[in-house]
Protein backbone atom coordinates (compact mmCIF):
# COMPACT_ATOMS: atom_id res chain seq x y z
CA UNK A 1 0.00 0.00 0.00
CA UNK A 2 1.15 3.50 -0.73
CA UNK A 3 1.66 6.29 1.80
CA UNK A 4 -0.83 9.15 2.05
CA UNK A 5 2.19 11.50 2.18
CA UNK A 6 2.69 10.84 -1.55
CA UNK A 7 -0.35 13.00 -2.30
CA UNK A 8 -0.44 16.75 -2.83
CA UNK A 9 -3.55 18.57 -1.63
CA UNK A 10 -4.80 18.59 -5.22
CA UNK A 11 -4.25 14.80 -5.46
CA UNK A 12 -6.25 14.41 -2.25
CA UNK A 13 -9.10 16.52 -3.62
CA UNK A 14 -9.23 14.28 -6.68
CA UNK A 15 -9.09 11.21 -4.46
CA UNK A 16 -12.04 12.33 -2.33
CA UNK A 17 -14.05 13.12 -5.46
CA UNK A 18 -13.17 9.68 -6.89
CA UNK A 19 -14.69 7.97 -3.84
CA UNK A 20 -17.82 10.16 -4.08
CA UNK A 21 -16.86 12.17 -1.06
CA UNK A 22 -16.27 15.88 -0.51
CA UNK A 23 -13.36 17.80 -1.98
CA UNK A 24 -12.95 19.93 1.19
CA UNK A 25 -11.88 16.84 3.12
CA UNK A 26 -8.49 17.35 1.44
CA UNK A 27 -7.93 20.55 3.45
CA UNK A 28 -9.09 18.83 6.63
CA UNK A 29 -6.86 15.81 6.13
CA UNK A 30 -3.89 18.01 5.24
CA UNK A 31 -4.38 19.79 8.55
CA UNK A 32 -4.39 16.48 10.44
CA UNK A 33 -1.30 15.24 8.61
CA UNK A 34 0.88 18.33 8.55
CA UNK A 35 -0.34 20.63 11.33
CA UNK A 36 -1.70 18.28 13.99
CA UNK A 37 0.65 15.47 12.85
CA UNK A 38 -1.62 12.52 13.64
CA UNK A 39 -0.13 9.05 13.97
CA UNK A 40 -3.28 7.16 12.94
CA UNK A 41 -6.25 7.80 10.66
CA UNK A 42 -8.40 6.88 13.69
CA UNK A 43 -7.37 10.16 15.35
CA UNK A 44 -9.09 12.19 12.61
CA UNK A 45 -12.33 13.47 14.12
CA UNK A 46 -13.98 15.63 11.44
CA UNK A 47 -14.17 13.14 8.56
CA UNK A 48 -16.87 10.42 8.59
CA UNK A 49 -15.85 6.96 9.77
CA UNK A 50 -16.90 5.31 6.46
CA UNK A 51 -14.68 7.71 4.52
CA UNK A 52 -11.77 7.06 6.86
CA UNK A 53 -12.29 3.31 6.44
CA UNK A 54 -12.11 3.78 2.67
CA UNK A 55 -8.84 5.76 3.03
CA UNK A 56 -7.40 2.99 5.21
CA UNK A 57 -8.10 0.46 2.45
CA UNK A 58 -5.88 2.44 0.06
CA UNK A 59 -3.29 4.27 2.12
CA UNK A 60 -0.95 3.91 5.06
CA UNK A 61 0.64 6.79 6.95
CA UNK A 62 4.31 6.30 7.66
CA UNK A 63 6.60 4.14 5.51
CA UNK A 64 10.05 5.07 6.87
CA UNK A 65 11.70 5.17 10.30
CA UNK A 66 14.77 6.69 11.93
CA UNK A 67 17.14 3.90 12.95
CA UNK A 68 20.17 5.89 14.07
CA UNK A 69 21.04 9.48 15.03
CA UNK A 70 24.60 10.82 15.36
CA UNK A 71 25.05 14.23 16.94
CA UNK A 72 27.93 16.69 16.75
CA UNK A 73 28.16 20.31 17.94
CA UNK A 74 25.96 21.93 15.30
CA UNK A 75 24.83 19.01 13.19
CA UNK A 76 22.77 15.83 13.52
CA UNK A 77 22.90 12.97 11.04
CA UNK A 78 19.88 10.68 10.67
CA UNK A 79 19.85 7.22 9.20
CA UNK A 80 16.45 6.13 7.86
CA UNK A 81 15.25 2.66 7.04
CA UNK A 82 12.77 2.46 4.18
CA UNK A 83 9.96 -0.08 3.91
CA UNK A 84 12.00 -2.30 1.53
CA UNK A 85 14.95 -2.38 3.95
CA UNK A 86 17.06 0.21 2.05
CA UNK A 87 18.77 3.00 3.98
CA UNK A 88 19.25 6.70 3.29
CA UNK A 89 20.65 9.60 5.30
CA UNK A 90 19.64 13.18 6.03
CA UNK A 91 21.56 15.90 7.85
CA UNK A 92 20.23 18.65 10.07
CA UNK A 93 22.34 21.78 10.55
CA UNK A 94 21.91 24.44 13.22
CA UNK A 95 22.54 28.02 12.05
CA UNK A 96 22.14 31.46 13.64
CA UNK A 97 19.14 32.04 11.41
CA UNK A 98 17.40 28.69 12.02
CA UNK A 99 17.82 25.06 11.04
CA UNK A 100 18.32 23.52 7.63
CA UNK A 101 17.90 19.94 6.60
CA UNK A 102 19.74 18.32 3.72
CA UNK A 103 17.61 15.47 2.43
CA UNK A 104 18.22 12.57 0.04
CA UNK A 105 16.24 12.06 -3.16
CA UNK A 106 17.36 8.59 -4.31
CA UNK A 107 18.78 5.34 -2.97
CA UNK A 108 22.26 5.47 -4.55
CA UNK A 109 23.09 7.73 -7.51
CA UNK A 110 23.99 7.12 -11.15
CA UNK A 111 25.91 10.34 -11.76
CA UNK A 112 29.24 8.92 -10.59
CA UNK A 113 30.93 12.16 -9.49
CA UNK A 114 34.44 11.00 -8.64
CA UNK A 115 34.75 12.95 -5.37
CA UNK A 116 31.42 11.80 -3.94
CA UNK A 117 30.92 9.07 -1.35
CA UNK A 118 27.16 9.15 -1.89
CA UNK A 119 27.57 8.24 -5.55
CA UNK A 120 29.77 5.19 -4.99
CA UNK A 121 26.65 3.06 -4.89
CA UNK A 122 24.69 3.00 -8.16
CA UNK A 123 21.10 4.13 -8.10
CA UNK A 124 18.82 1.45 -6.69
CA UNK A 125 15.64 3.46 -7.00
CA UNK A 126 14.07 6.89 -6.75
CA UNK A 127 12.63 7.93 -3.41
CA UNK A 128 8.87 8.24 -3.30
CA UNK A 129 7.42 11.66 -2.52
CA UNK A 130 6.42 10.40 0.94
CA UNK A 131 9.96 9.20 1.67
CA UNK A 132 11.22 12.75 1.08
CA UNK A 133 8.38 14.41 3.04
CA UNK A 134 8.81 12.03 5.97
CA UNK A 135 12.53 12.82 6.33
CA UNK A 136 11.37 16.29 7.38
CA UNK A 137 8.38 15.21 9.48
CA UNK A 138 10.31 12.59 11.46
CA UNK A 139 13.28 14.84 12.12
CA UNK A 140 10.96 17.65 13.27
CA UNK A 141 9.31 15.16 15.61
CA UNK A 142 12.68 14.02 17.01
CA UNK A 143 13.77 17.63 17.36
CA UNK A 144 10.52 18.89 18.86
CA UNK A 145 10.61 22.00 16.68
CA UNK A 146 10.15 23.19 13.11
CA UNK A 147 12.87 23.20 10.44
CA UNK A 148 13.21 26.51 8.62
CA UNK A 149 15.19 25.60 5.47
CA UNK A 150 15.32 22.56 3.19
CA UNK A 151 18.07 21.66 0.73
CA UNK A 152 17.89 18.69 -1.59
CA UNK A 153 21.61 17.89 -1.74
CA UNK A 154 21.86 14.53 0.03
CA UNK A 155 22.13 11.17 -1.70
CA UNK A 156 20.97 11.19 -5.31
CA UNK A 157 20.54 13.56 -8.25
CA UNK A 158 17.19 15.28 -7.54
CA UNK A 159 16.49 16.09 -11.21
CA UNK A 160 16.81 12.36 -11.98
CA UNK A 161 13.68 11.99 -9.78
CA UNK A 162 12.02 15.11 -11.15
CA UNK A 163 8.29 14.39 -10.94
CA UNK A 164 8.48 13.18 -7.34
CA UNK A 165 10.71 16.11 -6.45
CA UNK A 166 8.19 18.66 -7.73
CA UNK A 167 5.32 16.99 -5.83
CA UNK A 168 7.52 17.04 -2.74
CA UNK A 169 8.05 20.79 -3.19
CA UNK A 170 4.32 21.35 -3.61
CA UNK A 171 3.56 19.51 -0.38
CA UNK A 172 6.17 21.17 1.81
CA UNK A 173 5.49 24.61 0.33
CA UNK A 174 1.67 24.30 0.67
CA UNK A 175 0.47 27.01 3.12
CA UNK A 176 -2.01 24.45 4.48
CA UNK A 177 0.77 21.84 4.88
CA UNK A 178 4.28 22.16 6.28
CA UNK A 179 4.37 25.64 4.77
CA UNK A 180 8.09 26.08 4.17
CA UNK A 181 8.55 29.17 1.98
CA UNK A 182 9.87 28.41 -1.51
CA UNK A 183 12.73 30.88 -0.91
CA UNK A 184 13.79 28.63 1.95
CA UNK A 185 14.01 25.59 -0.30
CA UNK A 186 17.02 24.84 -2.53
CA UNK A 187 17.62 22.05 -5.00
CA UNK A 188 21.08 21.19 -6.25
CA UNK A 189 21.75 19.51 -9.60
CA UNK A 190 24.91 18.31 -11.30
CA UNK A 191 23.58 19.97 -14.46
CA UNK A 192 20.85 17.99 -16.20
CA UNK A 193 20.04 20.62 -18.82
CA UNK A 194 16.54 19.48 -19.98
CA UNK A 195 15.37 19.43 -16.36
CA UNK A 196 16.87 22.86 -15.60
CA UNK A 197 14.86 24.13 -18.58
CA UNK A 198 11.70 22.47 -17.28
CA UNK A 199 12.37 23.79 -13.78
CA UNK A 200 12.69 27.35 -15.11
CA UNK A 201 9.04 27.17 -16.25
CA UNK A 202 7.78 26.06 -12.85
CA UNK A 203 5.47 28.33 -10.87
CA UNK A 204 7.47 27.76 -7.64
CA UNK A 205 10.18 30.16 -6.42
CA UNK A 206 12.49 27.34 -5.24
CA UNK A 207 16.23 28.18 -5.38
CA UNK A 208 18.57 26.42 -7.78
CA UNK A 209 22.17 25.42 -7.10
CA UNK A 210 24.47 23.99 -9.78
CA UNK A 211 27.30 21.63 -8.86
CA UNK A 212 29.89 22.98 -11.27
CA UNK A 213 33.19 22.07 -9.57
CA UNK A 214 35.39 22.90 -12.59
CA UNK A 215 36.13 25.89 -14.83
CA UNK A 216 36.45 23.92 -18.10
CA UNK A 217 35.37 20.72 -19.82
CA UNK A 218 38.77 19.09 -19.52
CA UNK A 219 38.72 19.12 -15.71
CA UNK A 220 34.97 18.59 -15.38
CA UNK A 221 35.05 15.53 -17.67
CA UNK A 222 37.58 13.96 -15.31
CA UNK A 223 35.58 14.46 -12.11
CA UNK A 224 31.95 14.56 -13.29
CA UNK A 225 30.96 12.05 -16.01
CA UNK A 226 27.67 13.95 -16.57
CA UNK A 227 29.77 16.67 -18.26
CA UNK A 228 30.24 14.41 -21.27
CA UNK A 229 26.47 14.53 -21.77
CA UNK A 230 25.85 18.15 -20.71
CA UNK A 231 29.18 19.99 -21.15
CA UNK A 232 30.03 23.36 -19.64
CA UNK A 233 29.62 25.21 -22.94
CA UNK A 234 25.95 24.12 -23.00
CA UNK A 235 25.39 24.31 -19.24
CA UNK A 236 26.44 27.94 -18.73
CA UNK A 237 24.12 29.33 -21.47
CA UNK A 238 21.33 27.21 -19.94
CA UNK A 239 21.93 28.89 -16.54
CA UNK A 240 21.85 32.34 -18.21
CA UNK A 241 18.53 31.37 -19.78
CA UNK A 242 17.24 30.15 -16.42
CA UNK A 243 18.05 33.53 -14.88
CA UNK A 244 16.47 35.43 -17.78
CA UNK A 245 13.23 33.50 -17.29
CA UNK A 246 13.04 33.40 -13.50
CA UNK A 247 15.08 36.39 -12.36
CA UNK A 248 16.39 34.15 -9.60
CA UNK A 249 20.07 34.17 -8.70
CA UNK A 250 21.75 30.79 -9.00
CA UNK A 251 24.27 29.30 -6.59
CA UNK A 252 27.36 27.73 -8.13
CA UNK A 253 28.81 24.96 -5.94
CA UNK A 254 32.56 24.45 -6.27
CA UNK A 255 34.32 21.74 -4.23
CA UNK A 256 38.01 22.57 -3.78
CA UNK A 257 40.12 19.53 -4.69
CA UNK A 258 43.85 19.85 -4.19
CA UNK A 259 45.80 19.87 -7.45
CA UNK A 260 42.69 19.23 -9.52
CA UNK A 261 40.56 22.38 -9.79
CA UNK A 262 42.02 24.75 -7.22
CA UNK A 263 44.85 26.65 -8.95
CA UNK A 264 44.91 30.41 -9.39
CA UNK A 265 44.60 29.77 -13.12
CA UNK A 266 41.38 27.82 -12.48
CA UNK A 267 40.09 30.77 -10.42
CA UNK A 268 40.78 33.14 -13.33
CA UNK A 269 39.15 30.76 -15.79
CA UNK A 270 36.11 30.40 -13.53
CA UNK A 271 35.84 34.20 -13.21
CA UNK A 272 35.75 34.50 -17.01
CA UNK A 273 33.25 31.67 -17.35
CA UNK A 274 30.83 33.23 -14.86
CA UNK A 275 31.26 36.86 -15.96
CA UNK A 276 27.87 38.49 -16.45
CA UNK A 277 25.97 35.64 -14.79
CA UNK A 278 23.87 36.62 -11.76
CA UNK A 279 25.17 33.99 -9.38
CA UNK A 280 27.15 33.48 -6.25
CA UNK A 281 29.86 30.92 -5.88
CA UNK A 282 30.04 28.69 -2.85
CA UNK A 283 33.59 27.36 -2.36
CA UNK A 284 33.36 24.08 -0.47
CA UNK A 285 36.38 22.74 1.41
CA UNK A 286 36.51 19.05 0.41
CA UNK A 287 35.83 16.44 3.07
CA UNK A 288 38.26 13.60 2.58
CA UNK A 289 36.88 10.08 2.97
CA UNK A 290 38.80 6.84 3.34
CA UNK A 291 37.47 5.41 0.05
CA UNK A 292 38.28 8.28 -2.29
CA UNK A 293 41.77 9.56 -3.12
CA UNK A 294 41.12 13.31 -3.46
CA UNK A 295 42.74 15.70 -1.01
CA UNK A 296 41.36 18.87 0.53
CA UNK A 297 42.82 22.15 -0.75
CA UNK A 298 44.84 24.00 1.90
CA UNK A 299 43.00 26.94 3.43
CA UNK A 300 45.60 29.41 2.17
CA UNK A 301 44.91 28.34 -1.45
CA UNK A 302 41.14 28.47 -0.91
CA UNK A 303 41.66 32.06 0.30
CA UNK A 304 43.72 32.90 -2.78
CA UNK A 305 41.06 31.35 -5.08
CA UNK A 306 38.43 33.38 -3.23
CA UNK A 307 40.41 36.62 -3.66
CA UNK A 308 40.80 36.12 -7.40
CA UNK A 309 37.06 35.58 -7.87
CA UNK A 310 36.29 38.57 -5.67
CA UNK A 311 38.73 40.84 -7.57
CA UNK A 312 37.04 39.80 -10.80
CA UNK A 313 33.63 40.87 -9.54
CA UNK A 314 32.22 37.41 -8.70
CA UNK A 315 30.07 37.06 -5.55
CA UNK A 316 31.72 34.32 -3.56
CA UNK A 317 31.61 32.73 -0.11
CA UNK A 318 33.53 29.92 1.54
CA UNK A 319 31.11 27.41 2.96
CA UNK A 320 31.06 26.98 6.71
CA UNK A 321 31.87 23.38 7.53
CA UNK A 322 29.45 21.03 9.20
CA UNK A 323 29.64 17.47 10.35
CA UNK A 324 33.08 16.35 9.20
CA UNK A 325 33.52 14.32 12.39
CA UNK A 326 30.38 12.28 11.91
CA UNK A 327 30.74 12.00 8.10
CA UNK A 328 27.68 14.16 7.65
CA UNK A 329 29.40 16.68 5.41
CA UNK A 330 28.86 17.33 1.74
CA UNK A 331 29.44 14.24 -0.39
CA UNK A 332 29.93 11.96 2.61
CA UNK A 333 26.42 10.53 2.92
CA UNK A 334 25.87 6.93 2.00
CA UNK A 335 22.89 4.85 1.09
CA UNK A 336 24.10 1.88 3.03
CA UNK A 337 23.46 -1.67 2.01
CA UNK A 338 24.60 -3.05 5.30
CA UNK A 339 22.47 -2.95 8.40
CA UNK A 340 23.84 -0.89 11.27
S1 LIG B 1 27.58 14.67 -6.05
FE1 LIG B 1 25.34 14.35 -6.15
S2 LIG B 1 25.00 13.84 -8.32
FE2 LIG B 1 27.20 13.53 -7.97
S3 LIG B 1 27.39 11.34 -7.46
FE3 LIG B 1 27.18 12.52 -5.53
S4 LIG B 1 24.99 12.42 -5.05
FE4 LIG B 1 25.22 11.89 -7.22
What key attributes describe this structure?
single chain; 340 residues; alpha/beta; ten-stranded mixed beta sheet; two-stranded parallel sheet; 10 helices; 14 strands; 21% strand; elongated; binds iron/sulfur cluster
Give a structural overview.
The protein is an alpha/beta fold and about 350 residues long. Helices cover about 35% and strands about 20% of the residues. The protein is built from ten helices and 14 strands. It has helices spanning about 10-20, 25-35, 50-60, 130-145, 160-175, 195-200, 215-225, 230-245, 265-275, 300-310, and strands spanning about 1-5, 60, 65-70, 75-80, 85-95, 100-105, 105, 125, 150, 185-190, 205-210, 250-255, 280-285, 315-320. The strands form three sheets. It has a ten-stranded mixed sheet, covered by helices on one side. Strands 1-2 form a two-stranded parallel sheet. Strands 7-8 form a two-stranded antiparallel sheet. The longest helix has 15 residues, at about 130-145. The chain is elongated, with a radius of gyration of 21 Å. The model has no long low-confidence stretch (mean pLDDT about 95). The chain binds iron/sulfur cluster. Iron/sulfur cluster binds near residues 113, 118, 157 and 331. Iron/sulfur cluster binds near residues 116 and 155.
What does this entry show, briefly?
The protein is α/β, with parallel strands linked by helices.
